[in-house]
Amino acid sequence: MTLTMIERKNSSKLLLSVQNLKIQYRKKNEYIEAVEDVSFNIDRGKVVALVGESGSGKTTTALAIPNLLPANAIIKEGVILYKGKNLIQATHEELRAIRGKEIGMVFQDPTSFLDPLMRVGDQVAEVIVKHESIKKKEAILKAKNILEKMRVTEPERIYYYYPHQLSGGMAQRVVIGMAIACQPSLLIADEPTSNLDLTVQAQILNLLKALNHELGMSILLISHDLGVVSGIADRVVIMYAGRIMEEGDVHSIFKNPRHPYTRALLVASELGEDMVKQQNDFPSDLLSSSSGCCYRHKCPYVMERCKENPIEILLDQDSRVYCWLYSNES
User: Fold this and answer.
1) Quick check: 35 and 64 in contact, CB under 8 A?
2) Sheet holding 313-316, edge to edge
């Protein structure tokens, strides 16, 4: 780990520190490297975006934090420090207490996380009762207030709706309400707007931004689109094929992107193109390769040295890139 990251890790503002994370997926008798040596920090009250196309490892990284990885995933190395506690070593009981109360989660398809046979308001209230020592009647009142905070129209009426009666945007608001019901310190939002139209996308992002400001809640936002994170993130971590390509504050990433992959993502975002579709032909055997820059087969600036694994190059106190183009700047 670099000196800069150690300094930030020891900061009193630090909420979460992921250090040298390595995750494999077991597929029959083979092991696929899904995440390789990933490190980043989230300070209290800040929004950090993990950005990359499908298969980049960003969702796997996010799921590792509350230990919600699928059964065939193995954390081979690394440390995940939340408020100084290593979550990788936490017991099942400790993790259950943290999930929902300390760390809230919002995922891509809200309907898959709502019980179709239960009124949506009761589902919000159930989260409150589970983590707080209050009676059901008090939890119901609190749940209605949360729905109002989620900018749900007519929360008194919507409370008694079933999930099938909600639009996609309204369902996502309810799921966000469930995730922040106990005012967690960290919200993990995995592609929370990807299935919504542009107008509703903007509304959900504005809601997340408001919650960040009002509650002082940190957010880890997962997205494949740099344009989505431009108005909400404080810092951006770019991932490709399980590795970090570049990290910096949101302004430097947009004004002065360094890594060729970051530039490609920005161009795709400006043109309204989908990098997920563009890059899905990337050979699967290269995704698990530990030799050389994983982007070199797509990079217009590839050179002989790219056959070696790129090192972390600090561009300034808060920015880093993994690219041999900048080796003279280290």
Assistant:
1) yes
2) 103-106, 186-190, 218-223, 47-51, 235-240, 243-249, 319-321, 313-316
Running DSSP on this structure, what letter comes out for residue 224? S
The whole domain housing 277 covers 3-102+187-326
* Final residue of a structural domain among 149, 183, 217: 183
Q: Which two tokens stand for residue 22?
A: 């390595």
Q: If you count them, how many residues does the chain have? A: 330
Pairing of strands 30-43, 14-27: antiparallel
Co-location of 158 and 79 in the same domain: no
Helical ranges in the chain per DSSP H: 3-9, 58-64, 92-98, 120-131, 136-149, 155-158, 168-180, 198-215, 226-229, 250-255, 260-271, 275-279, 284-287
Residue whose structure tokens are 């299935």: 195
Question: SS3 of 221, please?
Answer: strand
pLDDT value at position 133?
84
Identity of residue 263: R
Joined together, the tokens standing for residue 48 give 């950090």
pLDDT tens digits for 246-277? Answer: 999 999 999 999 999 999 999 988 876 655 44
